[in-house]
Amino acid sequence: MQTVTNMYIFNLALADEMFLTGLPFLIATMTFNYWPFGRLMCKVYMTTTSINQFTSSLLLTVMSADRYVAVCHPISSPRYRTPFIAKFICLTAWTVSALLMVPIYIYANILENGNTISCNIYWPESAFMNGQKAFTLYSFTLGFAIPLVLILLFYFLVICKLRTVGPKNRSKEKKRSHRKVTYLVLTVITVYVICWLPYWITQVYITLLPPRQGQSHLGLIIILLAGCLSYANSAMNPILYAFLSDNFKKSFAKAFTCAARMEVNAQLNAENSVFPPKHTRSGSSKAQLNREQKPRNELEPSTAITLTSRSNIVVSSDKEISFRNGFNKQQTESEPTQV
Fold first, then answer.
1. Residue of 57, 94, 315 lying closest to 196 (CA atoms)
2. Rounded to whole angstroms, what are the CA distances from 26 to 30, 102, 170, 175, 186?
3. What pLDDT does 40 receive?
4. Which of 13, 29, 81, 169 could link 327 by a cystine bridge, Cβ 3.0 to 4.6 Å?
5. Cα 206 from Cα 144, distance rounded (Å)
6. What is the three-class DSSP state of 266?
């Protein structure tokens, strides 16, 4: 795992899997028709989901920049593409994402209104600013638009470089390696754009347009599909790493094998402490006497003992939908919620 690309992929996979931990909360809320986890978990859920989403965008941008440095500046790239710098960049990405999402932790809260308990982000309102619209544009710009522009710029430069570099300038093996890693990162980024672009389009659409009393059935389906795509991206990325990156597969298998070997050794040590071997150098005096009485020309068989061990969806009664703004499920007997 101690390669620059593998470190970025590992942190991206970690952010994806942590983002998927929000699914049980989403399913439970849609099942019970209200938020049952309390105020603190509401803040934690909203904040961690957004942090993981932002971290994915930042790491994809970093991976694109890393490809640009490796392909377009091969002589100076070893100075910047080191495991220490990669760890520092990953830590910085997580830290920046956490700082950008501080407003969500501050304003995320639950609201109890009769038979309804909702987990939502309640932005402050003023005559000069609408909090919800401001934060949606803030998140879209920093979490999607700017990273996407940088990613496209870096890959445009990388593709231009790969098309202009001939076989005389670089060995075929090294050129093939650069192309393979570049295709891996490009595939991951393409899937990311396909999965997240519909989500942000629907978010901006819902936020900027004036609220309506109802949504059409087709509009409801589109918004739900956009939200599902955002979760599907996090589920697909680890599969892409497994199929497209041989180096990551080998490194992950090696790390997993080492961890399993350490676990087996620990268990064997524990068993040996409970069932010590009978034949040791510090054995009984009787065993030593028997060995001394054997003739020197007789071969002693050795004895060995082998121990084996065993995005947030808000659905109100009038079908007004929002994925970013939290959970809000209305319990009514006369008008059931449609999902």
1. 57
2. 6, 22, 51, 45, 30
3. 92
4. 29
5. 17
6. helix
